[in-house]
Amino acid sequence: MSYKYYSTERPVMPGSFPKPQGNTVLNIENFNDRSYVAKIGREAWGFIEYEKPISPVLLDDYELVAASDEEDKDKICKLLCKVLQLTRGASDLKSLDFNPDSEIVTAVFEGGSRTINVACDSGTAMIRDIMNHLEC
User: Is 120 in contact with 38 (CB distance < 8 Å)?
Assistant: First the structure.
């Protein structure tokens, strides 16, 4: 698992992000322009991914916004599944399984399964995508 933090004030460059000892930087990506990021609900210049979480003090010092603690998509899928099972249209739904690495939800039914791409979705956008894909 990695921890992603968005830079909302400037592109990610040397000196613009913390380098805590024992916490490896896994990835740095800058966007071409400041772009809206649904996961944080505002614009950002890019992001940096770490192996471990960054302290709130460092996030504040470097003006970074955490994406990893915004929404629990796995929990949203589990709760949505319970609600959908109460309906006529999805009473045969067995599970909604969220894969955080691929950002794919697998809807498992009694007679098979369907995959739903929810990459870059907020929690509410993910619910809409699932509902539209399952035609609920």
Answer: yes
